[in-house]
Design goal:
It is built from 14 helices and 15 strands. By secondary structure, the chain is α/β, with parallel strands linked by helices. It has a 5-stranded mixed sheet.
Length: 405
């Protein structure tokens, strides 16, 4: 097989492709600014008014767009009709597999969560886990179809680096998987659940959460954006130039294994001094005197135990150093913090991180980038999966490149 490059992509367009690109352009314009009229769309896209009218009619008939009520102002003449995305017909499905939990959600194309479900992972082996995952997805999909709506796609977040060209999850130490052909397995499960016609995408969890922030977040979307997922593992999703940056093999953004301390603590990856050995939940639970058991942190924090709070404070300071390194590497418009550690530690974890970051900024005389918390909290990855299913439709070229990479 030839090495995949942009040159091997089918970029010579037939009429259908051009039409699709134009349709997507209109949808994207309306997502950036709700209430544009046909005339506005024509001005901004450079398409003729008759082409816009034709495409808008099609998009309304299919259920992508709707016309808003025209506000009667008493002015003479017909006022242009404002348009907006129609959230009623199409539904996106997102899912997250963690080492102990499966979460599934359905959302509208505007990112509104319609339904959510969560269950403990019954079996950690890939066969059992993928089976349960698709079982839970099927339940939600059936409800969507029974309600007369249509599923556009499914996005699944996984706890490790995924090679999107081969569909192989290379390494997920926290669940003990190595070189698992997740894509193949999910497709087989979807086929036996009679869902093989629905496009399915699978990616590293933090990558999807990052796309969730840019697709469903406020407009214009922050870009570059770095999403940091703080849990047992520590990962990041990077959106650069409206594209997910995942590196050459899908392992880009594995910030848990950047080194914070020379000759520091031993890490699960074999190196010493990795961020995960200071900021990961197992490390925090060990520092809190809880035998390295993250599940014990919830009760300890609920009781406001000093040792647990001090452990989150120390981890937060290390996270601040990591934020400083991410800031100078990417110069992001914003950094988003999410994951279980943020939920458990709250201000005891986040505030010291922000203080450390601000102190580096002051020392250099430059303002630190905006850091905010994930919009969808514990559903960030599952919603990100739904967002990616939409992203793939609205960015067919980038999604294709991602697959060929
Ligand atoms: Zn490491």
């Amino acid at each position: 097989m030839n090495s995949p490059t942009a040159a091997t992509l089918p970029i010579t367009g037939d009429q259908r492709l051009v039409k699709n690109i134009n349709r997507i352009a209109l949808l994207r314009l309306l997502r950036e600014e709700e209430g544009l009229s046909r005339a506005d769309l024509s001005d901004r896209s450079g398409l003729t008014r008759s082409t816009v009218s034709l495409l808008v009619k099609e998009l309304i008939d299919e259920g992508w767009l709707r016309e808003n009520e025209v506000i009667v102002t008493g002015q003479l003449g017909r006022r242009p009709t404002p348009l907006q995305l129609d959230g009623r017909r199409f539904v996106l499905v997102g899912a997250e597999l963690t080492p102990d939990t499966i979460r599934v959600v359905t959302t509208s194309i505007q990112g509104e969560v319609l339904e959510a479900n969560e269950a403990a992972l019954r079996q950690v082996d890939p066969e059992g886990a993928c089976h349960q995952l698709v079982e839970m997805i099927s339940v939600l999909v059936r409800r969507v179809v029974d309600g007369g709506r249509e599923v556009l796609g499914i996005g699944v977040g996984l706890p490790g680096a995924v090679d999107s060209q081969t569909g192989v999850l290379q390494f997920a130490p926290n669940i003990g998987w190595r070189n698992v052909p997740v894509g193949e397995r999910l497709r087989a499960e979807l086929e036996s659940a009679d869902l093989s016609s629905v496009p399915v995408h699978y990616q590293n969890e933090a990558d999807l959460a990052a796309i969730g922030e840019t697709e469903f977040g406020p407009r214009p979307a922050d870009d570059p954006l770095v999403y940091i997922s703080c849990g047992v593992g520590l990962g990041s999703g990077i959106v650069l130039g409206d594209t997910m940056f995942t590196g050459a093999t899908g392992a880009g953004g594995e910030i848990g294994h950047t080194i914070l301390h020379l000759q520091g603590r031993a890490c699960s990856c074999g190196r010493r001094g990795c961020a995960e050995a200071y900021v990961g939940l197992r490390a925090i639970a060990a520092d809190a005197g809880l035998d390295g058991k993250p599940e014990a942190l919830k009760a300890a924090m609920a009781e406001r135990k000093d040792q647990a709070r001090a452990a989150f404070d120390a981890a937060g300071r290390n996270l601040g150093v990591l934020l400083q390194n991410i800031w100078t590497t990417f110069d992001p418009k914003s950094i988003v913090l999410g994951g279980e550690a943020v939920a458990l530690g709250g201000a005891d974890f986040v505030d010291p991180a922000l203080q450390v970051l601000a102190s580096y900024g002051e020392a250099a005389g430059v303002p630190a980038p905006t850091v905010r918390l994930a919009r969808y909290t514990e559903q960030a990855v599952a919603v990100g999966g739904a967002a990616y299913a939409l992203y793939a439709l609205m960015h067919p070229y980038q999604a294709l490149l991602q697959q060929q990479r």
